[in-house]
Amino acid sequence: MSGTSTNDSLTGGCLCGAVRYEASGAPLNVRVCHCRLCQKATGQAFFARAMYPAERVSITGETRRFASSEHVERLFCPVCGSGVFAQRASRHDLIAITLGSLDDPDALKPEVQIWTSSRIGWVETLGEVPGYPEWPEG
Known about the structure:
Layout: E1 9-13, E2 20-24, E3 29-33, H1 36-42, E4 47-53, E5 57-60, E6 64-67, E7 72-76, E8 83-88, E9 91-98, E10 112-114
Parallel strand pairs: 3-10
Antiparallel strand pairs: 1-2, 2-5, 3-4, 4-9, 6-7, 7-8, 8-9
């Protein structure tokens, strides 16, 4: 699995490269979740992911699972700790791929945001915060 994407597949993996995947076809949905569980599990303001039928995702390398609730399991690389996938405990026929783990993270755009009642307030104002293409001076 080399390269970023083809006409009908996307590739990605963890930070260290020990876990790689290829997802074929279009995702079922692409969402950003703002719930507190996703915030805590990712250590981020939200969880951006694409849902695929599990049979359309080919994974190489070892992953470990953590049950972040009775409903959701997070799959991560045991070498570098990168969160790469998530699955509902009762739906292993589906797998969510973290958008940040895609080789081309711009390949998919979220269609909807869920659990916006838990959205962290500053997320809406990020466009107003000064930005730098790399490290700021000083």
